[in-house]
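Quick one: Transporter substrate-binding domain-containing protein from Aeromonas sanarellii, structure tokens please.
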Amino acid sequence: MSHLHRLLYLALLMFAAPLAAAPLRVGVSFAIPPYVLTHEDRGIELDLMREAFAGSDHELQVIYLPLERTFRMLEEGKLDAIINVKPGMVDNAYLSQRVITFHNRVFTLDQTAFHSLQDLQTLRVSAFQRARQILGTEFADIVARNPRYEEVARQEGQVQRLLLGRTDAVILDQRVFYYYLAQLLGEDKNDERYPSDRVRQHDLFPPTHYHFAFREIELQRLFDRQFTRMKADGRYERIFAAYGTTSSAENIKASP
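--- reply ---
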């Protein structure tokens, strides 16, 4: 190999190396199992994202943040993608096709009188962040009049507080609620501290369809191409099955 050829070869290596590992900074909310398992760096949505970019020139860097910060950092260009976005929730981004559907429900204990959304005006209510933007204007107007309404970034303690009687109503996705319930009960299904048989589920909200958001249209197009293939060849459903659930509302009580 001539000296000129060696120089050209080295130059190609220098330019090719960074391209082969271009970082894809993905902002992800704190643990929302089984969609995101922070302590294990996996989950349904993380697995879907990783599978879509497997074999590409992009290396995922998952960055765990409060939900509100993920939106802000994407708009500021500090992230390349975020999960769980509805149209109109973020500017200067390209939304993928629908990726996942959440089934948000109100959970109470049996001693709590609850019949309609209007009851949320007087109860102690704990919901996920951005619930007011996601669950509709009627819901937003009702809870705006409730000084005991809160939205929290970390959902680990919400189920426990409900079972201990420290809050009256919890608003969570079904899979998230039952995952945490299974974690609390562990091996003891009759743990008297956590009266799971007294939990009541209220189906008041329509399904929420979420997209992934990308700063660059090329990333969004690449994701959509691969995602379409994943749904066609069965990989999409297999990822759900690995967490004991399906993509539909059936078999919703996912296990850890």
